[in-house]
Structure formats: structure tokens, C-alpha cells
Amino acid sequence: MGLIFKIIGFFWRVIWRLLGLTLLVLLLFIAFIYFSNPTPNREASVSQALQGLVARLDQFFDSQGLHTDLTKNVQGLTDQLSDEHSKMESGVRWEYPSATIYIDTQNPTFQAAYQTAIEAWNQTGAFSFQIVHDKATANIIAGEMNDGSVTAAGEAESQTNLLTKRFSHVVVRLNSYYLMDPQYGYSYERIVNTAEHELGHAIGLEHNENESVMQAAGSYYSIQESDIQAVRSLYQDQVSKPEKVNQI
After folding, report:
1. Single pTM value for the model
2. Which of 67, 104, 118, 136 has the most CB atoms in a 10 Å sphere around its CB?
3. Where are the beta strands (DSSP E) in 104-248?
4. If you classify domain 98-234 with CATH, what class do you get?
5. Which parts of the chain register pLDDT below 50?
6. Residue-wise over 185-210: b if at least 16 C-beta within 10 A, else e?
7. 8 A C-beta contact, residue 88 and residue 202
8. Is 158:170 a contact under the CB 8 Å cutoff?
9. Peptidase M10 metallopeptidase domain: from which residue to which, for each copy (predicted)?
10. What is the per-residue pLDDT across 196-248, written as a single tens digit (0 to 9) for each?
């Protein structure tokens, strides 16, 4: 019996040493990627490498009868990382050119602006927003903020699967600190343009400096033909599913 315990102990020591060595190699590999890739998407590269390596580790431990759920745990961490760094990464989009959206604001001006912006995007035929009344079922939350510490009339935050480059959830906000203060000169038309701009981010569009709703200034242009073509190009491998848009 003592011999059996010694054998078991020996194998456990080997496994843990292998685990320690593997983790060390993993950390060195991640450090190499991080410092050798000085680009704006460096964090995304690190996350992708981490997920790939951890998936292989998970497969190895599963084959040894050790179920660690490493891949699942790391996926949660990288989703948080994508929130902060990869929400505007090139090529990120929904699986199909359609998404459900919940309007989460009591401001009547913002409610009307969001509805007008949603209708404008739907009329392009390039993307379909479906308004829902249950916040828990929405892919996109269209809300508001009142924050003078940021220099933007609106913002978009996303959760993204870095492996598939697909959105899992997006929150857009209109900033009443600027939009509702007369001294900043935002007409209703410019508020609608801002809503269209933020919904463009929720579709997957990035900033540009052209005559476009996605111009970085964010409020001087409505949806242009170039924006429609950009959406079609982004979703060129998919066909929009016709959906009826519910009205509040």
C-alpha cells in the first residue's frame, strides 16, 4: 500500500511540475507578444494568444482526467479586456446584420432621437434594429449619461469575443451634459446625428474623417451612402433577416 501512495505522489509531483513549467512558458510567451507588438491592438493580440494557449492546456488536462475549466475562466477575463481596449477593433460586428435594442432613457428628446436614428438605419436596408421592451433580451442598450469629465457627446462600450470578432453586447449612451445644454449649440438634428453615430459603432463601424455619420466629430452628418456601403462591406458574407421593428 505504501508503494502505491509513493507512486501516486510521484505522478502528482510530475504533473504539478509540468503545470508550473507550462505556466512559466505561457507567461514568457505573453510577455514576448506584449513587448514586441507596440500597436494599439496589443492587448487584443495578447488576449488571443492567451486564449489559444489556455485552450491547449485545457485539452491536455482533460486528456489526463483533470477538468480545470481554464478556457471558460480566461474567456471571461478577455471579454472584460475587450470592453476596455477592443470595442472599435477593425472588423468586429454582429453575426448577422441585425440586433435587438432597448431604449433605456426617460429623456423624451433622447427617446425620440434614438427612435429616429433607428428608423434611419433600418431604412438603409443594410442593418436592422428591432426595438424590444425587455432589457434582458436586448443585444444593445441605448441609454444616457451626464458626464462633463469626458469630452464626448456620446459613447459606445462593447463586449467582444476576440476569437470570433463578434459582439456579444453593446451599450451606447447620449451625454446630456453637452447635448441638453443650450450653450453647446446642439440642435435636435445634431442630437439625432449623434444617436446615428453611436448606433453606427454598435453596428461595428469605426471613426473616419470623411463626410460621414461616423466622422469623429459625431454630429454634423447624418447617414451617408458611404456609411451604408461600409455596413454592407462589413456584413458582405451575410444576408439581413427581415424583422419588423416594434415601436414604443
Report:
1. 0.64
2. 118
3. 128-131, 140-145, 154-161, 166-175
4. alpha beta
5. 37-47, 71-87, 240-248
6. ebeeebbbbbbbbbbbbbbbbeeeee
7. no
8. yes
9. 105-235
10. 999 999 999 999 999 999 998 879 999 999 999 999 999 998 754 444 444 44
